[in-house]
Please model this.
Amino acid sequence: MNTLPTRVLKIDPTSPDPAVIHEAAALIRAGQLVAFPTETVYGLGANALDALAVDRIYQAKGRPATDPVIVHVQAAQQVAELTTHIPDVARALIDAFWPGPLTLVLSRGPRVPPNVSAGLPTVAIRMPAHPVALALITAAGVPVAAPSANLFAHPSPTTAQHVLHDLDGKIALILDAGPTQVGVESTILDISANHPRLLRPGGVSLDTLRRIVPEVEVVTRYVRADEGAVPAPGMLLKHYSPRAELRLFDGPDEAVRVALSQAAAELTRQGFHVGLLVADEDRAALSLPGVSLVSLGSLGDLSQVAQRLFAGLRDLDARGVDVILARAYPPAGIGMAIQDRLIRAAQGRVTYV
Ligand code: TXA
Ligand code: MG
Model:
C-alpha cells in the first residue's frame, strides 16, 4: 500500500545537520518510521517503547511477526531501562565493542513492548557507531527499534537508494548519508543464558569476540521454512535473496574459476542471462561474452568485499540477470559473515568443487 510521500534528506555522515536530525527525531517521537544509516547497513527506525510504531516496521517490511528487531541506543546507560539484568560479561563486551557492530541479546525488561522481540523474553540491543544514528537516537530521546531497512528477505540496504527502492511510499523519511562502511549487519551474541551463543556472524569477527568471551558457542544454523519450527530467530535459510536465483561455488580458487566459467557458458547457451559475482582476481578468467560481471574487490581485502556485497547483489538484479553465480570467500574474520550471507542468498545451493 503506497500512501506516504517518502522524503529523502541528505545529511553529512560525520557532522550531521542538527535541523535535519531534529526533524527526523520529531517523526520518531510521533510514531513514524525513519530510515537512517548505521556503520553496518541502513536501519528502519521507530520508537522502541511504542508498540504501534514498532508494528508499522513489520507492516512496511512485510516482515513476519515472528522475527524480532534490534533496539538501538546512544549510550551504554540506556541498556538498564531495557533489560531486567545486566550480566558482568555484558559490561565487558560493551566496554570492548560499543559503539560498534555487536548486538547483545539480554533478558527483556517490562518497558519493552513484546512485539519488539516477537514475544520472546529477551531483547536484542546495540549501540551503532555512526554519528547520524547516534545523533538521531539522542534527539529522539527514546531507544530506536530498527531492523535493516529492506523488504523482508531482500538483500540489506547499504545506500539510501536501496532503501528507497524497497520502501518508497511506505515510510516517512530516509536520511541519506551515503554508503555504509561495514556493509554486513552486526554480530549477534546471546548472553541472556549461562553460555554466550553466537546467533549471527557480523561486523565483529569471532576471533575478536573470543578475546572477551573465549567460551562463545557458534549456533548459527540454516533452517528451511518448510522444516517447521525455527530454533531461534534469524536462522531461516532463505534471506538476503536477490530476485535472480543465486548459486554459490566454494573450493580452491582455480577450481572455482573453472566451475564458474563452465556453468556460466552452459547457462548462457541455454538462453539465460547470467550474472557473475566474483573477486578482482577472477576477472581475467571470467570475462565471457553476454555475461554480466560484478567484482566485489580483491580477495586480499575482505572488508571491501563485505562493504560491496549487498550492493553487488542488487546491481546484478537491476541488470535483469536470471541467475547469479557467486564465488565463496575464506570464512576467516569478516569472511565468516560474508559466507553466511551468501549461503542464505543462495538458499543453500552451494557447489563444492
Ligand atoms: O547491523 C545490524 O544489526 C542492522 C542495523 C540496522 O543495526 N540491523 C539488522 O536487523 O540487521 P535485522 O534486519 O537483521 O533484524 C534483526 C535480527 C532478527 O532477524 C534476529 O535474527 C535478531 O536480530 N534478533 C532480534 N531480537 C532478537 C532476540 N530477542 N533474540 C534473538 N535474535 C534476535
Ligand atoms: Mg534484515
Summary: Residues 38, 40-41, 43, 67-70, 101, 103, 105, 117, 120, 122-124, 128, 146-148, 185-186, 188, 199-200, 232-234 surround threonylcarbamoyladenylate (ligand 1) (CB under 6 Å). Residues 7-218 form a domain with the DHBP synthase fold (CATH 3.90.870.10). Residues 253-269 form the longest helix (17 residues). The radius of gyration is 20 Å.
